[in-house]
Amino acid sequence: MRLPHLALAALALPLLGLAAACSDDEEANPEADQTVEPQTVDVELTMEDFSFSPGSIEINFGDELLIEIANDGEADHTFTVSEFLVDETLSSGEDRDITFTPNEPGEFTYFCRFHQDEMQGSLFVLADGATPEADAEPTPDSDDEGGGAGIGY
Ligand SMILES: [Cu+2]
Q: Rounded to the nearest whole angstrom, what is the distance from the C-alpha of residue 49 to the centroid of ligand 1?
């Protein structure tokens, strides 16, 4: 009568182990989806004789840029970004809103074709997760005191 019992136990244990392994693999990964929602970034850009204000623009890759350009100078100026085929000429006193969506990340230059040596600015298109705050160090959990829920064996 002892042999049949042993045989059953030997069969049952591996089966239980298999069942547990299967259910463990079914876990979903809630942290897989970390995409940042694209947004429209609104920038007021002033042309002067002879500079752009601001001198740099920073957006995330995927964002649309809405630039409200105003030429406050005496001369005509252009807002030109070669990589994105942007080239707007504004007469003195003119203002204009333009929109475009940079289709690659990186650092680009916007400039005035008439005064290219003086009138330049930097357009930063940041790739996903490139913001300096993104890789903050994990805080060590110091206050890990069990609240009396331990199993007392
Ligand atoms: Cu100019």
A: 7
